[in-house]
């Protein structure tokens, strides 16, 4: 059955008169698989945009157009079946007649791993990522990403891992090519309420102060 839902969200900044009003109108399923979204902004009308999304069992398309006389237009699409997915996005500036972005990606997914290859930054950067689940019981996961910048002829990489100490406590770690080591522990002490302790250190400059953070997330 077709249904159309609309809602508005308004927000005022704390420092009047530098306020901003945002309005979002959403229409679900005017036809099967189609969704329309209209975002309005006042007084900064350049933030307004209209978006159409279409989803099929094996494909999806999104068209995003700015609400200005010379709008920015973005189109993205993805197709996939049996664990293989291919997608891309392109952005076009009608004012200058130039492309603002063109990216593409290919991924291969199995129950215990995911591998992906991306061409981003206007085809200037090639990225390869791999994620492997070691143990579904503890959600133990290792991941790695390698990137190559064609214009700069530079390579970067990072590796990381995740381990669940118990159903409510998760530990994560990451090592980057620049020698930075980061880790965090996160505990869900109440449903949807989290406390997170994180830290980061530069292994090449241990004499410098390390970064330590504490975050508390509360949800009713």
Report on the structure:
By secondary structure, this protein is mainly beta. It is 0% helix and 65% strand. The protein has no helices and 15 strands. Strands 1-2-3-4-5-6-7-8-9-10-11-12-13-14-15 form a 15-stranded antiparallel β-sheet, with no helix packed on it. The radius of gyration is 22 Å and the shape is globular. The two termini are 32 Å apart. The N terminus is likely disordered. Belongs to the eukaryotic mitochondrial porin (TC 1.B.8.1) family. One of its GO terms (cellular component) is mitochondrial outer membrane.
Give structural attributes:
220 residues, 15-stranded antiparallel β-sheet, 65% strand, mainly beta
SSE map:
Elements: E1 21-28, E2 34-42, E3 49-55, E4 59-66, E5 72-81, E6 84-93, E7 98-110, E8 113-120, E9 125-135, E10 140-149, E11 154-166, E12 169-176, E13 180-190, E14 193-202, E15 211-217
Antiparallel strand pairs: 1-2, 2-3, 3-4, 4-5, 5-6, 6-7, 7-8, 8-9, 9-10, 10-11, 11-12, 12-13, 13-14, 14-15
Rough outline: globular
Q: Helix-strand pattern, N to C?
A: EEEEEEEEEEEEEEE
Q: DSSP helix count?
A: 0
Q: Trace the largest sheet across and list its strands.
A: 1-2-3-4-5-6-7-8-9-10-11-12-13-14-15
Broad structural category: mainly beta
Instruction: Provide the helix percentage.
Output: under 10%
Low-confidence stretches: 1-15
The total beta strand count reads: 15
Assembly state of the chains shown: single chain
Cα radius of gyration in angstroms: 22 Å
Q: For the terminal residues, how far apart are their CA atoms? A: 32 Å
Largest sheet: 15 strands, antiparallel
Strand content: over 45%
Query: How confident is the prediction overall: mean pLDDT?
Result: 88
Family: Belongs to the eukaryotic mitochondrial porin (TC 1.B.8.1) family.
InterPro entries: Porin_dom_sf, Porin_Euk, Porin_Euk/Tom40
GO molecular function: voltage-gated monoatomic anion channel activity
